[in-house]
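User: Teach me something about this protein's shape.
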Amino acid sequence: MASYKQLSKYNWKVTVSLGFEGGKRTRVAKQGFRTKADAEKYVTELKQQQNKGYVPTSENNVPFKDFILKWYEDYKKHTLGISTRASYTGRINNYIIPALGDYKIRDITPSVMQEFYNSLIDKMKPASIEKIFQILISCFKYARKQKLIYELPTDIDKVKVEAPKVEFWEDKELNIFLDRIKGTYLYNAIFIDSLTGLRVAELCGLRWCNIDLEKGYISVNSQVIYDREEKKLLFTEILKTDSSNRKVSIPPKTLGVYLKNLKEEIK
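Assistant: First, the predicted structure itself:
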């Protein structure tokens, strides 16, 4: 059952009864419709959603900032690596909550999301905006699974994300750089990295027990990362992805010889 009230010339309010939740009647009130017909269309759509299993509850009437923080702490945080958590919380606290935090979950529509997206275009690159929206998409998918929303509001028009152009040094340029840093604390790490392509965190986690000079490979199974929440460096055997655990060949005439000599020097 629905009741309609005209608040002003182009502002209609509707209150819809959707049965009972926990012994209490569930009502949904919404205003801002230009005509009564618009309000009636909303009621029809709401009833159709209810028939498909979606029922508005008190939970989807909470501020989005409360929901996304609870989602992160109770669910998402435990699926992320330590170094990724700081990026997530930074984007949530610096971009998402200031713009969307005061909205109720059920009031965040595609038009709200489009407005948020457009506000970011002049501030950052499309690839950076996409990372923010990946968080939102994941959060809203969780909300939909909990039947707090009926459809994802993140299906909007976006600027195409261009693949970044990869630039690299030629052998001559690399050799010039290595000559400049020879004798410094940087040389060993950068020389090894130039021939293996290890990530910085993997390189920092490299130990002699990972290097098999006889068989000619490096076992990549650990890394050193900075935990921004705890503000300290951590050694961990949990890598970025499952495929990060791998064996990297050692070029025998260059890196192989260099590592053998280095190992002899530090004995």
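Now, about its shape. The chain has three domains: 2-55, 60-145, 171-265. The two ends are 84 Å apart (CA to CA). If you'd like, I can walk through any region in more detail.
User: That's plenty for now, thanks!
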